[in-house]
Each structure stands twice: as C-alpha cells, then as structure tokens.
Design goal:
Blueprint: H1 2-10, H2 14-18, H3 22-55, E1 62-65, E2 70-75, E3 81-87, E4 90-95, E5 99-104, H4 113-127
Antiparallel strand pairs: 1-2, 1-5, 2-3, 3-4
C-alpha cells in the first residue's frame, strides 16, 4: 500500500509543487471580473445618480421618501435636512438621504423685474 502512495507523489510534475501556476488562479480572476461588472459597477452608478439627484433638489420639487411619504419641498434646511409639506399646513423635516425619488421638478425661479432692470443697467454701463 505504501508503494502506491510513493508512486503517486513521484508522478506529480515539479513545476506545480514549488512554482506558481497562473492557470490555477484564472477562474478566481474571471469570477472577480464578472462580480465587478454585474454587481459593483451598477451599484456605484446608482449611488452616483442618487447623490446627484439629492444635490439638485430645490424648493417646490415633489418627492417620495423612503417610507412612501409624498410631499413638496418647502425649505432646504441644511445639507442633511429638507422640510416637506405633506398636506396643507403640515410640514415635516426629513433627512435628505431618505429621499428616494423626485416625481416632478420645478422650473428655476425667474428674476424679478427689478433684477432684470438692474442687469440691463449694468449692461448699458459696461457697453458705454
């Protein structure tokens, strides 16, 4: 019986015992590549778009929170908090990261007539 074991050990090639075999790591490298492209990369893209959406919030946007509450942004309190109006005269403060979706965006606030006249006055001065 011991003769069979010694014969089996004698048949192994010398390069795989002490050397580095790249072919044995190839399946692990392929698994990591598939894992990256199917799971990690889409998750990073989704996180980036969510952060961009939160950065572009403004007053008047209609949003949905993580808990399913639908409201209108009435005030941007800070970088972390937003004040929502969920019904007439009912306002709640929500952590900005809990906002999952913007249902409708509002147009940027237009300049007042005074602001428009002032900007025209500065243009005339600069052209003279």
């Amino acid at each position: 019986m011991s003769l069979i074991i010694t014969d089996a050990l004698a048949d192994t090639p010398a390069s795989s015992i002490g050397g580095f075999d790249v072919m044995s790591f190839l399946p692990l490298i392929l698994i990591f590549a598939v894992f990256y492209f199917l799971i990690l990369r889409p998750q990073q893209k989704k996180l980036k778009t969510h952060q961009q959406m939160l950065a572009n919030l403004r007053r008047g946007d209609r949003i949905v929170t993580n808990g399913g509450i639908i409201g209108t942004v009435s005030k941007l309190v800070s970088d972390q908090e937003v004040q929502l109006e969920i019904a007439d005269d009912v306002k709640v403060r929500v952590i900005r990261s809990m906002i999952t979706e913007v249902m409708s965006k509002t147009d940027p606030v237009a300049n007042d007539d005074a602001d428009a006249a002032q900007s025209k006055g500065t243009k005339k001065k600069s052209s003279e």
